């Protein structure tokens, strides 16, 4: 999605060839070490071309080689962990991070407390400025106010 949306917003983007660990099928991880090594070479070239002053990661396996390379080069690195449970990449990168921004309180169990700043999660302006009331939402979705409603969202 990012490879389409970022250029549409007027920014350039360069992808790296990497994959995450497949926990359900070890056989699918055979090529993973090669991809990880290749990604570090790709990131090195991107850094040489772009020469970043700082690097911000939001988690996931694709963040790891980018922030790790920046930390090795002494470039300030920042992490934003939007979930209430930190991912593996962010946990592994946290010690070398300059600052860690979190969406919620209580993240000291995952990150060095002195590096944490609770910022919340970024949301679109139209959501923040929305005048929709709980009553309007209940009516729109056909829900009853006296019942508990559970919203479940997820990602790939």
Characterization of the model:
The protein is an alpha/beta fold. It has one domain (2-141): Glycogen Phosphorylase B (Rossmann fold, 3-Layer(aba) Sandwich). Helices cover 35% and strands 10% of the residues. Strands 1-2-3-4 form a four-stranded parallel β-sheet, with helices on one face. Helix 2 crosses helix 3 (63-72). The mean pLDDT is 92.
Quick structural gist:
The protein has helices at about 1-10, 30-50, 65-70, 90-95, 125-130, 135-140, and strands at about 55, 75-80, 100, 115-120.
Q: Would you identify the CATH H-level superfamily?
A: Glycogen Phosphorylase B
Tell me the span between the first and last alpha carbons.
11 Å
The number of domains: 1
Shape assignment: globular
SS content category: alpha/beta
User: How big is the Rg?
Assistant: 19 Å
- What amount of the residues lies in strands? 5-15%
Largest sheet: 4 strands, parallel
Please tell me the CATH architecture by its name: 3-Layer(aba) Sandwich
Number of helices: 6
Give the averaged pLDDT, no decimals: 92
Relative helix content: 25-40%
In CATH, the topology is named Rossmann fold
| Order of strands, widest sheet | 1-2-3-4
Topology as H/E string? HHEHEHEEHH
CATH class: Alpha Beta
Tell me how many strands there are: 4
The residue ranges in which pLDDT falls below 50 over 5 or more consecutive positions are: none
């Amino acid at each position: 999605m990012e490879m389409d949306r970022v250029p549409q917003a007027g920014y350039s983007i360069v992808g790296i060839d990497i994959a995450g660990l497949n926990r359900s099928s070890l056989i699918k991880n055979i090529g993973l070490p090669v991809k990880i090594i290749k990604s570090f070479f790709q990131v090195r070239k991107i850094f040489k071309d772009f020469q970043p002053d700082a690097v911000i990661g939001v988690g996931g396996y694709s963040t790891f080689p980018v922030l790790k390379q920046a930390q090795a080069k002494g470039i300030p690195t920042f992490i934003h962990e939007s979930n209430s449970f930190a991912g593996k990449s962010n946990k592994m990168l946290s010690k070398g991070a300059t600052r860690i921004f979190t969406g919620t309180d209580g993240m000291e169990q995952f990150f060095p407390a002195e590096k944490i700043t609770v910022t919340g999660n970024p949301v679109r302006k139209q959501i923040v400025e929305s005048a929709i009331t709980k009553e309007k939402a209940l009516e729109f979705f056909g829900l009853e106010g006296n019942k508990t409603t559970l919203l479940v969202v997820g990602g790939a």
